[in-house]
Amino acid sequence: MLTFLLLLLTACGGTKLSDEGNDVSGQDWIVENFTSTTESGEQLSLKDLEGKVWLADFIFSNCTSVCGPMSAHMSKIQQLLEDEDVDVPIVSFTVDPERDTPEALKKYADQYGANLTTWHFVTGYSFEEIKELSVNSFKSPLEKPMKGDDQFSHGVYFYLIQNDKIIKTYNGVKDTPIEAIVQDAKALKKDMQ
């Protein structure tokens, strides 16, 4: 009976994702609308990602701890996606929009060999706006630096998103399941076709 039920669920188009990461598809994690400016000075909003599977994370260019490993892992993910000819946009939101100008983000992106046709580093909003997006949509705390420090406290997860719904989260720093993220993105894209 259990085998029959599993076959029935698979036959009904249920997308089989990896066991890696945290499946939040059954929860109401919806990305609120946002407006931003890319490293190239172009506008990017949630509407531009409509009908797409995409990845997101939160970084800042002056980060001295987790952002480097996160961006290095995201770079590997982008390369694997390109190798398999899978178009999945990546959006890295800066949590330090005051200092992270488009020029600063372009310089940061270059350090990681980012292909800026599909990986966007975005700014152009206030700290309050990005904190609201981080907390409300991505369920991730975000705090300004402590007095005498310049390091923001932010989440270290990668988010796999379909349209505006967050499907899965993965640790972007430690034991990042790079291949599983690529396979999950491919599975979601196939499901949308």
From TrEMBL:
Residues 25-190 form the Thioredoxin domain. This is Cytochrome c oxidase assembly protein. Disulfide bonds join C63-C67. Pfam families: SCO1-SenC. Keywords: Copper, Disulfide bond, Metal-binding. It comes from Pueribacillus theae. Cu cation binds at C63, C67, H154. InterPro entries: SCO1/SenC, Thioredoxin-like_sf, Thioredoxin_domain. GO terms for molecular function: metal ion binding. It comes from the Bacteria. Transmembrane segments: none annotated. Gene3D superfamilies: Glutaredoxin. Belongs to the SCO1/2 family.
